[in-house]
């Protein structure tokens, strides 16, 4: 995943104040009736139709290819908003789908096509350059209202022209999750359109909930998911290695509101507890900004598919440690077997691991299979309730 470096800088988005800025005039908003304004659309040969084949690497070192097949007649929709990936030199990106946008959609959204129609709008997001400027002590000059206005306009176009009463799963990561969190709060939460929401997966961002409760905080009437057949609910978390918890400086897994904590729902065990995950990891690691993945099998053949599924290798559990609440990821290493005992995913800059970022680069891959299957189970439950 060559351009995944974007996703680690995306975390800085969560640290940005929600500056009061004037939204761009309606005439300047993208026209989402134009297919060129969409990164992914159903039935099109785009980033969300890219190869999702995976090699299953068993603990004993054996390998088998798992071919991917998209649904021929999807019964529900997925609306995906991508994280900070734009390499455009301006504070807000343009509306052209570059390699970075296409790559992240292939790695984060395309697998959901196993069950749903995937819609992913382009939007004038806050760019990597703008965030780097702020992190270097410069002024924040990006227009967040513009980025959100685009996502809102795309959502409204989708509802008006494509939804037609279908259930929809909202999916975002990092900046994309921040945009969807605001969209839910402003346009969905407690409103009639919420009846169309199968679930929302706001990953790699902080969502505040009252301590000990599953609803309230950032979203007033949109509860956390506690079972696979629950609908109209939220799946959210940030990830850290179980043996490398968030340091005091981390902005992940913590919120500022008194009496609130950062919500954590484990896609592999929504009712709570620790569970082995259904992972789909990048064959070569998480890309620039991350370490290189060790060989999947010692002295084994080279994996040729873009993804690897390693059954039993990863477990996850929502934990509370001090002020932090997060998804703790354990690699179930067995030095006696030939399969790798490590997974790449830490943010690495100049050979130094940035511990406050956790496993932001692989928030989704460590539980990708769980997320995809949850979307289908919840969609069936939503359809049954509708009947």
Written description of the protein model:
The chain is of the alpha/beta class and 387 residues long. It is built from six helices and 18 strands. The protein has helices spanning 5-10, 99-108, 128-135, 144-163, 175-188, 368-386, and strands at residues 38-40, 54-57, 63-66, 76-81, 116-121, 168-173, 197-203, 208-210, 233-237, 239-241, 260-262, 275-276, 281-282, 307-309, 314-321, 324-331, 348-349, 352-353. The strands form five sheets. It has a six-stranded mixed β-sheet with strand order 1-5-4-6-7-9, sandwiched between helices. Strand 17 (348-349) and strand 18 (352-353) form a beta hairpin.
Unreliable residue stretches: 1-27
Strand content: 15-25%
Task: Please give the alpha-carbon distance between the first and last residues.
Answer: 41 Å
- Overall strand count: 18
How big is the Rg? 20 Å
> What average pLDDT do the residues reach?
92
Share of residues in helices: 10-25%
Main sheet makeup:
6 strands, mixed
Instruction: Assign an overall shape.
Output: globular
> SSE order in H/E notation?
HEEEEHEHHEHEEEEEEEEEEEEH
Structural class: alpha/beta
Number of helices: 6
Sheet with the most strands: spatial strand order:
1-5-4-6-7-9
